[in-house]
Every structure is written in structure tokens, then in C-alpha cells.
Amino acid sequence: MTEAYQPQYRQIEQALRERILTMAPGSRLPSDAELCAEFGVSRMTARNAMQRLAEDGLIAREPGRGSFVAEPPAHRRANRLMTFTQEMLRAGRVPTSRTLTRVIRPSTAAEAASLSIPPRQPIVHLRRLRKADDEPVALESAVLIEACAEAVMTADLERGSLHDTLARAGFVLARGMATISAGAATAEDARLLEIRPGDPLLVERRVIMDVHGRRIEATESRYPADRYALDVRFDVGGAVSDSGAAR
Fold it and tell me: Structural domains in the chain?
């Protein structure tokens, strides 16, 4: 049984994400007070929604002036997950998907471990070729817990977002962890991604959890190295202290 409740700030955040997709960079967004009036929420709730959008690089908040739609980021930030659909739309590209596999089957031992469920428990296996402007950008293989089956098996995932589907079904995705590595294209990768066998790939493996810490999805995404990248922000170790001395 899924959780039907979504925190108010997440509802506002999702509504604003959809609104931003139709707006030009530099367009002004509602103020916190205007959001409070529109959605009937507190100022803190409105601020939390806007802060998440700012952290994703979707908006720029300028003290004394307001919040504005940001220029589309060149790449996704490594520390934040934006859906492929949102990411491509923000880049001005048209996202589509070709479903290669969508079945309910028993989990393998490795899949069960990644989702923290007993081995052989049913899972949903979804494998898609993700495209932008008809160019193959990613080969994505996801496994999801059985509770997602009804939503995932009936959704239009050729043009729609998996995470939007899960949100509508009441799954509130909150956090995750990922590893990013290099790989080489297999013969199947090459055929589907329209590259050569052995070409370099960026491989991202991630696990996503809901607000209760329950593992919902484990996914491997394989990107041609010349078609995708991640932006990374970091602090420098040994930075100069306030006193001017190097640590």
C-alpha cells in the first residue's frame, strides 16, 4: 500500500517545476508571500519549496529583487537528481523513451540486496532507451519494489517520467546514493546507443529511498561519454582559515 500524502512544500515544488518548463530564463517567479496566498501555506513552507528549486539550479534568488528562472544548466549536478525528462526539457530538447523491458519477475540476489528485500521477492524490471531530439542519450535499467507495480505497469513511460508516475501514486522520493564510473560499450550498448563497441561510457548506479528510508528503486544508467556529463561542486581541503593561515 502506497503513501497518498505528500508534504505541502513538495506539492508546491512540483507545481513550480512544471511551471518553470514553460517560462523563459529571467522570468520572475511568485514571491514567498504570493506563494502563501496561492497555495494557502505558511511562509516557511513556501521558502522550503523555493530553496529546493534553487539547490537544483532551476531558479536564482536575488535578495531584494525576488526569484527568477535560471539559465538552463549545462549538465545535471552530481549531488542532485533531476529526472531525465525534466533535465532534457530544461536543456531545450524533446525527451522520449523506448521501452525495452517492463515485467514483474522474481528478484535476483543482487537486486534484492540493492533494494533491501528478500531474494526472489517480486520486483518490477523496467529497461528503457532514453532519447533527446531522437538521439540516444542513455540506456537505463531500473528495478523497483513490488508496491510500485500497479503504477509502473500501466503508465505511459514512452513520453512520461517514471518519477512523476511514482509521485502521483503516492511515493514520496526523498534521498538516494549513487556511484559514477567509467565503462566500455558492449555490443548491445553499441547497437542501442548507436555507438561503437568499446566506446567509453559514463555509468551511474543509484538507489533511491522514500521519506521513510524505504528503498524504492535501484537503477543503472549508461551514457555515451560524449553526450552526457555531470557537474560537481566541492570544497577544497586545506583551505585558508579566517585568520589567513593555511590549514
Answer: 8-69 (1.10.10.10), 76-231 (3.40.1410.10)
